[in-house]
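F.,

This is the one I mentioned.
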């Protein structure tokens, strides 16, 4: 049982805490939520498969390589297969696999452009609109067993819409949610691009709360909220709002 737990920690800790996650890069994104029940969402810019250290499969501190994987290529293959399952076929550093991952995403509604440009980085143009139902999340990765949304909308029991942006806090957003866990040593240089974006919410509904620095900008019945996102705010400081619509 102890050996199994060590193997799980060796896999999960680097994946979740060293940063093997899909996160934003440089981007502009806008969400519209309207009283007639319609919504539209756009995301233009970069999406990246983040690696928090040079070897994302490095064992947690205090654990030797032999304890973590037994030194066998078969165990390495198992770990890579697990990573592929978590991310819907994508593994950081596998350029051919990431090209296929991009081609697969481009088959789905809303993904007007998904281009893999190397170094775990994608150029993305995404647009979707319609009648809002119960929940929304972007990106939704087909086949992935773990989702880490850039933007999600959750309907509360009273009908209010809560907008959250977990991945805009960077890999630390998920780390904070998971609590303290063993980690491998981080490299001096991160392979990821800095998160650098603008996120805007536009609505003619009632804004019950938001955490913008400048508050609402009001023009007639329309309110807008804008955040400058740099991935350093932590999970509590990433863009958040609660909006009540008439319908």
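My design for it:
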């Amino acid at each position: 049982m102890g050996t199994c737990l060590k193997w799980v920690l060796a896999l999960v800790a680097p994946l979740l805490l060293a940063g093997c996650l899909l996160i934003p890069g440089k981007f502009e994104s806008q969400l519209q939520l309207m009283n007639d029940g319609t919504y539209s969402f756009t995301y233009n810019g970069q999406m990246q498969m983040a690696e928090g250290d040079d070897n994302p499969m490095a064992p947690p501190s205090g654990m030797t390589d032999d304890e973590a994987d037994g030194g066998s290529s078969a165990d390495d293959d198992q770990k890579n297969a697990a990573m592929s399952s978590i991310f819907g076929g994508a593994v950081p550093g596998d350029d051919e696999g990431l090209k296929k991952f991009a081609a697969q995403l481009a088959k789905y509604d809303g993904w007007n452009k998904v281009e893999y440009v190397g170094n775990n980085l994608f150029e993305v143009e995404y647009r979707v609109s319609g009648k809002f139902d119960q929940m929304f999340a972007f990106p939704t990765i087909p086949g992935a067993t773990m989702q880490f949304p850039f933007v999600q909308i959750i309907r509360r029991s009273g009908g209010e819409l809560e907008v959250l942006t977990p991945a805009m806090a960077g890999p630390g957003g998920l780390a904070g949610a998971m609590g303290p866990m063993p980690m491998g040593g981080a490299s001096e240089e991160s392979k990821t691009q800095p998160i650098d974006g603008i996120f805007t919410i536009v609505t003619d509904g009632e804004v019950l709360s938001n955490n913008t620095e400048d508050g609402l900008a009001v023009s007639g019945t329309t309110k807008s909220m804008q955040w400058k996102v740099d991935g350093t705010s932590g999970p509590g400081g990433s863009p958040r709002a609660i909006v009540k619509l008439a319908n």
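The helical segments are 2-17, 65-69, 73-86, 95-105, 171-178.

Talk soon.
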